[in-house]
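Appendix B. One record, verbatim.
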Amino acid sequence: MTPERLLSPAEIELAGLLFESQVIHDLRIYAEAHGASVLHYRSKNGRHEADAIVEHRDGRWIGVEIKLGHGSIDRAAQSFLAVRDTVTNDADP
């Protein structure tokens, strides 16, 4: 595999998956050093997801969306906002 081949339209999805895997790996290392863990979130209906949720043991958390290219950022952002709204609404009494 060469850098040129990874960036070709036929292989860009694979490159994105490899990039996401590397980012998750690094997040886990940083999170563990701060008493946090890294999780994945997908809604029950499978329509919305967050690539990573970094959750501290005290309950604080941040969501992370990982993208290599700019082609799907708007769609991912909309899904990510839906995740935020779902989690926020579920937490309200």
